[in-house]
Write a structure and sequence with these properties.
- This is DUF1217 domain-containing protein.
- By secondary structure, the chain is mainly α.
- It folds into 4 domains: 119 residues, no CATH class; 75 residues, no CATH class; 65 residues, no CATH class; 66 residues, no CATH class.
- It has a two-stranded parallel sheet with strand order 1-2.
- The longest helix is centred in the middle third of the chain and has 29 residues.
- The protein starts with 15 loop residues before the first helix and ends with a helix.
Length: 369
């Protein structure tokens, strides 16, 4: 995996001092607060306070109960790295050429943050460096589709909103750093400026990571895929065969039609869209007609859900251009093979861009601008 940076690495300045502080600090969870309230209520049967939980609060409680603390995340990250070394048959994260020698894609964001900040003093300087680069790569990947949509529409709110969403998805440990706060403040400032004049790139904002990204990738070029399409096809073939073997061990068979009354239905939930495209296009003739049909149906469903999500955003915001912007982001996030399998051609993209411009012009006329 090749590391890609944006000139400024927001994680480079995070060190072990914060990591130790983050590991030691414990914030009360929602579950703790409820338990406290329950205890107080049980001690006084005449207490008038009643605590009613919304579905969202219950969902948050359940998520918190399943979320490991940062010490556990740190402790688990060490053997996870060691397993990656063993699998890649290397002894460290960097090869002789100075490039990353292991694939960190299997590690979640909190684990990478623990490594990058040397939480618990368990990680080497090289490990911190590659984890930091991977976090930057993920920020880049989150911006890529939105940046591409911005390059086509000249609407800078799109890419700044994507950056805000990514930053807001950080863990509490990451949000507790000065680096995260400064970065989010800069992005928010850019977002507010873009809302005032969407067709003009915000400028003069100190520490703006979006501006740094757009300087390197003015056309919103996404971070490239690292696996050849043939490799993707071979890997997904092996994944389907593994499901078939598990079904056979249970005395049944793997089936691809949900209408079948017997057999174990194929599970596509862990198979990404590029892999589904490999099945659908079947360039290496590795898949049966049943597999192709089922993969195409799953891919179409995901594509349809993506469009519906864009429509939902458009309806909720009251901004009809959000539909076109959402579709353009989805298009930009696809590999060439995914677009081919989904039937999303450059002509389709151009039609969506034209739709965006027409809708924007109409809105401008209605607003008198």
């Amino acid at each position: 995996m090749t590391s890609i940076t944006t000139g400024t690495n927001p994680y480079a300045q995070l060190g072990s001092a914060y990591a130790r502080t983050a590991a030691a600090a414990t914030q009360p969870s929602l579950l703790d607060a409820i338990n406290t309230a329950d205890a107080a209520g049980s001690s006084d049967p005449n207490a008038a306070t009643n605590l009613t939980l919304s579905d969202a609060a219950k969902a948050r409680m359940a998520a918190e109960a399943k979320t490991p603390d940062f010490t556990t995340v740190t402790n688990d990250a060490r053997p996870a790295l060691d397993k990656l070394y063993a699998a890649a048959k290397v002894t460290g994260p960097l090869g002789a050429d100075g490039k990353t020698a292991i694939d960190l894609s299997a590690l979640d964001r909190r684990s990478l943050f623990a490594i990058a900040t040397n939480s618990g003093g368990k990680f080497t300087a090289d490990e911190q460096s590659v984890a930091s680069s991977e976090l930057t790569n993920r920020f880049n990947a989150a911006l890529a589709p939105a940046a591409a949509a911005t390059s086509m529409t000249k609407n800078y709110t799109v890419v700044y909103k994507a950056a805000l969403d990514y930053l807001d998805g950080a863990s509490s440990e990451e949000k507790g750093t000065a680096a995260w706060s400064a970065q989010r403040a800069a992005v928010l400032k850019g977002y507010e400026a873009a809302k005032q004049k969407s067709d003009t790139a915000p400028s003069g904002i100190s520490g703006d990571p979006v501006a740094s990204y757009l300087t390197l990738y003015p056309d919103g070029a996404p971070v490239g895929t690292t696996k050849t399409f043939s490799t993707v096809a071979t890997n997904v073939r092996a994944a389907l065969d593994a499901q078939a073997s598990l079904a056979a061990e249970k005395g049944t068979e793997l089936v691809y039609d949900p209408a079948r009354k017997f057999g174990q239905l194929v599970d596509f939930s862990s198979i990404d869209n590029r892999s589904l495209s490999a099945i659908t296009l079947n360039q290496d003739q590795q898949f049966s007609n049943q597999e192709i049909y089922a993969a195409k149906k799953e891919l179409d469903t995901r594509t349809r859900m993506s469009i519906l999500e864009s429509l939902k955003q458009s309806q909720q915001s009251g901004d009809p251009t959000q539909l076109s912007l959402g579709i353009l982001q989805s298009y930009s996030a696809m590999s060439d093979e995914e677009r081919q399998a989904s039937g999303w051609s450059p002509a389709f993209r151009d039609n969506v861009v034209q739709s965006y411009r027409s809708t924007s012009n109409i809105l401008s006329m209605l607003q008198g601008s």
